[in-house]
Write a structure and sequence with these properties.
This protein is mainly alpha-helical. It has one domain (3-87). Helices cover 69% and strands 0% of the residues. It has 3 helices and no strands. It has helices at 3-34, 41-64, 75-83. The longest helix has 32 residues, at 3-34. The chain is globular and about 50 Å long. The chain starts with a helix and ends in an 11-residue tail after the last helix.
Amino acid sequence: MSFNNLSALVGSRICHYLICPIHAIGNGVELFIMEGHPQSPEISLISESVTNANTHIQFFSVGFEATGQDQLIVQSEVLAILADPRLGGWLNIA
C-alpha cells in the first residue's frame, strides 16, 4: 500500500467518523421540530451549525477521501461545493 493510498483511506475514515454524529444531531433537530416544539434561536443555531459542518466535510471528502479508479465526480458538483458561501469565501473559483 502506497503512502497516497494510506492517506486517502485515513481521510475517508476521518470524514466518515465526523459526518455520522453530525447527521445524528441534524436528525435530532428535525425530530424536535416535527414534534411541534417551537423553532427557537438555539435550535436555529444548531441547525445552521450542522449545515455548515456538512458543507465543510463534503469539501474535505472531495479533496481527501479514497476513491476507486472508476469513481467519478461531476464537475458541476465540485464547483457547487467549492462555490458554497458557507466555506467562508476563502476560495476563488475563476
